[in-house]
Amino acid sequence: MSQVEIPVDLILQKIDEERHAATSKLKKGFGVLTGELDTDISTTPYETVYSEDRVKLKHYIPEKIRCRTPLVIIYALINRETMLDLQPGRSVVELLLKEGIEVYMIDWGYPTRKDQYQTIDDHVNGYIANIVEHICAAKEVDKVNIMGICMGGVFSIIYTALHPHRVRNLVTTVTPTNFETDKGLLNVWMKQTDAQVLGDAYANMPGDIMNLGFLLLNPARLMIDKYVGFLQNIDDKNYIENFIRMEKWIFDSPDVPAATFKQFIVDFYKKNLLIQSRLEIGGKRVDLKKITVPILNFYGQFDHLVPPEACDRFTSEIGSTDKEDICLKTGHIGIYVSSKCQKEFVPKIAHWLSQRDN
């Protein structure tokens, strides 16, 4: 039997071609990285119209207002609201303005040690309530539309239940309301977390530690794959600019006030009080049946932080008759930055709000 010959020359030729291609890519990539890059985020023009302590209110005005009721966006205390205005062409704020919606967005700022005793009550019945009153007075309206995001969506639900006279319509996005599920590693971890020890150790819960925890939820994708993708696309200026913008947002992580962090872990993840209408904020019970305004509830099918099982029970527990659930085939952040989702997400919100703008 004749021995199979190994085509050494062809293998060496292929290796040499790949070496030249890699060298060329790295050389071009070096030029991209050392050249001028546009990596600014949150570039849509706005005016700061209200401030209280560390909290500020951004005001965005469309060229033509088509929806009479202004929209207040309430972001989570974790990471920053700049994710909704990541870049031109991938900006929820920009798209809302194009739809003729006047936008107010809360910037929670950066908590310091003096903020460590601030509770959920301080955020909902303090900052949010004061901001809504300011907007109602400035715009001479009785009610606002609210769009809540993740933890900010939880705050939005609480506010709506306690202040129903100030809310016309409520949009919740990737908002956890049922913490009983064990789907998603975050839910499992939080149930085992000693919030008291962490809160006492750090005063405020450090954003950097929370970021590390989020990365460890999916280390292969979030700590390896994305940097492999960075190297594979190192010569693509547009890709690199988008990558750096996202990294800027990810690692711009404010701390969370210790009292709020403790309360969220215990009352939500461990006791699951919200969905049972047993949660008490500011001495008042948050009864979901008192939410009778129209509700639009978005969540992501592949969300590893807030899985569908944490979101899809909410509309069945409230008093509203006008309510709709929408599950998009995306993850926790993709719902806001994916170009495919944005084509469905913002137009749906704009149309839904305009139909209920009475």
Automatic annotation (TrEMBL):
Pathway: Biopolymer metabolism; poly-(R)-3-hydroxybutanoate biosynthesis. One of its GO terms (molecular function) is acyltransferase activity. It comes from Desulforhopalus singaporensis. This is Poly(3-hydroxyalkanoate) polymerase subunit PhaC. It holds the Pfam family Abhydrolase_1. GO terms for biological process: poly-hydroxybutyrate biosynthetic process. Keywords: Acyltransferase, PHB biosynthesis, Transferase. Residues 70-333 form the AB hydrolase-1 domain. InterPro entries: AB_hydrolase_1, AB_hydrolase_fold, PHA/PHB_synthase, PHA_synth_III_C. The keyword Amino-acid biosynthesis does not apply. Gene3D superfamilies: alpha/beta hydrolase. The keyword Zinc does not apply.
